[in-house]
Automatic annotation (TrEMBL):
One of its GO terms (molecular function) is ATP hydrolysis activity. This is Sulfonate ABC transporter ATP-binding protein. Residues 14-245 form the ABC transporter domain. The lineage of its organism: Bacteria, Pseudomonadati, Pseudomonadota, Alphaproteobacteria, Rhodospirillales. Belongs to the ABC transporter superfamily. It comes from Telmatospirillum siberiense. SUPFAM superfamilies: P-loop containing nucleoside triphosphate hydrolases (SSF52540). PANTHER family: ALIPHATIC SULFONATES IMPORT ATP-BINDING PROTEIN SSUB (PTHR42788:SF13), TAURINE IMPORT ATP-BINDING PROTEIN-RELATED (PTHR42788).
Length: 266
């Protein structure tokens, strides 16, 4: 059997994957027959109504949930092996920073746990904080920062392992629109300049179109993929692009997909 060369291998490869949560009353099919391949350098957004399985899918990739059936590989490995090799960084919806540690020492905490020496920890922290636009804030405490800045610290922390794959669950969901625009521009630049592969959960159509190379539209009960939309805008994105016809057309297709999957009878 011919083997696939490493460079052509998808970073995430999911085949007919299902996940059923066994609840006390009746089981919940959170994911049903999911097929998805994410290639190196892709920026894939998962969009869909509340409860359609976006977080569950991200958690399966991160080995935080076990599928009931189907196959998944991350970097060609089982999710467990990929997790043990620290193949990905995970950004949660809430920044989850320790208030008694400085910004720098929040970013370096996971590096302390894996036993990196202090010089290397500080080098990585400085590098990642600069990438998210927080150079000079190393000695501040989280409570001295705005919500958007705290979320950027949590992105720097996820980047500190230097993973090729970044998993983000609605990282900007709680922020105002102007701050979100700013962070979207910054994240887009970070993605473009570092060549990382990103899987990003959002409820915002315009955020998904702005950031992504592909948009996965999901529907709930059972959680399925309804549509996968190529977002063939130039890699270098500007906020003004949102007014372009191409941007509007892609956004309209996402909106239609979401409307089709939405059931009002429950
Ligand atoms: N640990 C669990 N046990 C039982 N059911 C669960 C569990 N986690 C999630 N679910 C159910 O699985 C479905 C998918 O949940 P999930 O959190 O993945 O949705 P989501 O798309 O991320 O929603 P939201 O946009 O609200 O964050 C929901 O019906 C939810 O109630
Ligand atoms: Mg969720």
């Amino acid at each position: 059997m011919a083997t696939t060369p490493a460079e052509n291998r998808p970073i995430v490869d999911i085949r007919t994957l299902s996940l059923i949560f066994k609840a006390a009353d009746k089981p919940v099919t959170a994911l049903d027959g999911i097929d998805l391949r994410i290639n190196s350098g892709d920026f894939v957004s998962l969009i869909g109504p509340s409860g359609c399985g976006k977080t569950t899918l991200l958690r399966v990739i991160a080995d935080l949930e076990q599928p009931t059936s189907g196959d998944i590989t991350v970097n060609g490995l089982t999710p467990e092996a990929a997790r043990l090799k620290r193949a990905y960084g995970y950004v949660f919806q809430a920044p989850a920073l320790y208030p008694w540690r400085t910004v720098e020492r929040n970013v370096t905490l996971p590096l302390e746990i894996i036993g990196l020496d202090k010089t290397e920890r500080q080098r990585r922290s400085a590098q990642q904080l600069a990438l998210v636009g927080l150079a000079g804030f190393e000695k501040k405490f989280p409570w001295q920062l705005s919500g958007g800045m705290q979320q950027r610290v949590s992105i720097a922390r996820a980047l500190a392992f230097e993973p090729d794959l970044l998993l983000m669950d609605e990282p900007f969901g709680a922020l105002d629109e102007i701050t979100r625009d700013h962070l979207n521009s910054q994240l887009s630049r970070l993605w473009r300049t570092t060549g990382k592969t990103c899987v990003f959960v959002t409820h915002s159509i315009s955020e998904a179109v702005f950031l992504s190379t592909r948009i996965v539209v999901m529907s709930p009960r059972p959680g399925r993929i309804l549509d996968v939309i190529d977002c063939d805008l130039p890699r270098e994105r500007s906020l003004e692009m949102r007014e372009s016809q191409r941007f509007q057309d892609i956004a309209a297709r996402v909106r239609h997909g979401l409307a089709e999957g939405h059931s009002y009878d429950e």
